[in-house]
Design goal:
Distance between the termini: 6 Å
Order of helices and strands: EHEEHEHEHHEHEHEHHEHH
Number of helices: 11
Largest sheet: 5 strands, mixed
Number of domains: 2
CATH architecture of the largest domain: 3-Layer(aba) Sandwich
CATH topology of the largest domain: Rossmann fold
Shape: elongated
Strand content: 15-25%
Radius of gyration: 20 Å
CATH class of the largest domain: Alpha Beta
Number of strands: 9
Helix content: 40-55%
């Protein structure tokens, strides 16, 4: 048994995340960056461009993720839409908010819980009947939020603006080899599709057995649910559903727990 973490896998690219995990690397932890998702613009973003080109008015826009904001900006810039035609703007996550405000989209609210559930809690005591709500999203995004809004009789415009593709396995060969050759203490999964793609790319047949000698941190409850549905135990979920929250979880485990071996 070892009392300190040596190797962790993070299902994000090095370019995207190295600054976030620099503190852990300074502690001597080897961080293996495993980009399990390739993000690309969705062909269906044309639906958003058409909507914006008509200068449509909305009561709310909800950005469920950083990428939803990023690709909304693509459509916004191409259509010269007046963002002030949207009364209230909600962003899930501090990084999503920061990106929006960097591009002069003022965010009115960020839920304390960085998830669809957090947005639902915020809207639960509001009159949503007949309200027009725009949600730029992933092609495989969960429908919990839009289903809730439709139950509340809102007019929901849920439009895929980006897609989560499986990366080419050959492009990740060196990273896959490093994971296979290392004793991994912790896996950090940042979305349900990140977990599912990791299993596919690593050709894992028995998930419970593969992860039995490691611990898993899931970024949020939806990711935790998908992992556990596949018979794999999730060790922890951070209080704050962010990369920073995950880093803090790793530090806690490094300080207080004995890792599996």
């Amino acid at each position: 048994m070892s009392s300190k973490i040596k190797n962790i896998v993070v299902t994000r690219s090095k370019e995207q995340s190295q600054n976030d995990f620099a503190e852990l690397e300074s502690l001597g932890i080897n961080v293996i960056y495993f980009p399990a998702i390739k993000i690309e613009e969705s062909e269906r973003i044309i639906d958003l461009k058409i909507l914006l080109s008509k200068n449509s008015r909305f009561d709310y826009i909800i950005f469920p993720s950083f990428n939803s904001a990023k690709y909304f900006l693509v459509a916004l810039n191409e259509t010269y839409y007046d963002i002030n035609l949207i009364k209230q703007k909600i962003a899930v996550g501090s990084k999503t908010k920061a990106y929006c405000e960097k591009h002069k989209i003022h965010i009115d609210y960020v839920p304390e819980e960085y998830s669809a559930e957090g947005v639902i809690k915020y809207l639960s005591d509001r009159d949503l009947e007949g309200k027009k709500i725009l949600i730029p999203k992933s092609e495989i995004g969960r429908r919990d939020l839009e289903n809730y809004l439709r139950e509340r009789k809102s007019e929901v415009f849920s439009i895929p603006v980006y897609k989560n593709e499986l990366p080419n396995e050959d492009d990740l060969k060196n990273i896959i080899d490093e994971v296979n050759e290392s004793e991994i203490d912790l896996f950090l999964f940042t979305s349900p599709s990140n977990y599912e793609n990791f299993v596919t790319l690593m050709n894992i047949e028995d998930e419970a057995d593969y992860f039995s000698n490691s611990r898993i941190i899931a970024i949020g409850n939806s990711t935790k649910k998908v992992i556990e549905e596949n018979g794999v135990e999730v060790f922890s979920v951070p209080n704050e559903f962010t990369i920073e929250g995950m880093v803090n979880e790793v530090k806690k485990i490094n300080d207080l727990f004995v890792v599996k071996s």
